[in-house]
Amino acid sequence: MSKTMPAEVALGETFAAELHLTAQACAANVIVRDMVPGGTSYVRSEPAAAVDGDRLTWVVGDLDSGEARTIKVWLKAGKEGTIVNCASVSGDPRTCVATRVVNPAIQLTKTEPKDVVICDPIPVTLTVKNTGSSKLTNVKVTDTLPAGLSSDGKNSLVFDAGTLAPGESKEFKFNATAARTGNYNNAAEVTSDQGVSAKATASTAVHQAVLAIACKARDQQYMGRPFEVCYTVSNNGDAPAPGTQLVVAVPSGTTFVSATGGGKASGGNIVWDLGALAPGAKQDLCATFTSSTAGKYAFNGSVKGTCATQVSSTCETKIVGISALLLEKADNPDPIQINENTTYTVKVTNQGTADDTNIKMVVEFPEEITPVSASNGGTVSGKTVTFPAYPRLAPKQAFEYTITAKGVKVGDARVKFIRTSDGIPAPTSAEESTRVY
Predict the structure, then answer these.
(1) Which of 311, 315, 149 lies closest to 241 in space, CA to CA?
(2) Do 360 and 332 sit in the same domain of this protein?
(3) Phi, psi at residue 383, to the nearest 5°?
């Protein structure tokens, strides 16, 4: 304990004396005593003292080692001279030990997106925090992924957080991938050597765009005529399909004419860029083609998206030609006299785009004219000439027959030419007029 006072004060002046008390070790029942010196009077003190005449007493109680107290006493100088003031302190030795009571506690939080598409990673963040008042050791976080989720091929992940001081936290991150769509509930747990643990759960719904395609084309079309091939593209999934693109290969032997919906020729394909196809949406797209070559043509279309599996569809159109037979006839000379001969020429030309087969010709003569002979194996029977069937006539090809006949009766004779074929089975007839005099 130490005590200080001013070195000099004036008569009648109030001044302060200070006591400074410091425990060198733990002490109990500490009491400070002081006397009001002669030639002064007591004014007050902080803290307040117990006053007994000129005796001042402060009961301090217990002090821990190093603990300090300050006591102030105000006195008033009443006479000239030297003032001497002495104080004393007493206490009992005190021995102390301490036990700290702590509350170990731990917290785990887990965050991940609520919704993703199947081709995107699922970012997961685990945060462990010491929320208690004691140090935690051997802190480990275990995340067991549900079936269908994995991270780098693993289904269970362990993270070592080591030692955590009170209030300290550590963060761990990883990416999970989904093998299929669905709702995934993902649980994790943290443990420590102190026996405290915590759990955290997060859920993610995995969505997917599912593209579908259907192709429709007419079964048959004639050569040189335009025809449409149409595709219906739809998204049957529960997520948009960005970057949706339909590609149709142009078959060799056909010519692309036009397309609906912004389809454009690119190399040997027709391409439609459909953008992001929403769930449940569909688009109908058509392309127009022509072909000058007979055959069966397959139109292969495929649709894909940024995060959607490519699917395909095929439909076929058979391109066929059509025959068109031109029948031409003439007589020379005309007119003729009775018993004079004339020659009839008949020509058949295929003006179409397909072969015609089994072409037959029958010529019927009236009473004014009688057939005499016929070329190319034609047979004369009374007033009728029948030619053998011409087996096959290619497009732009032609054949001719001739018949020699003579006039037998005066009049305006009408010779009838009748043609049939496999391609045009209905009879086609034409007449040639010959004057007999």
Answers:
(1) 311
(2) yes
(3) -95, 15
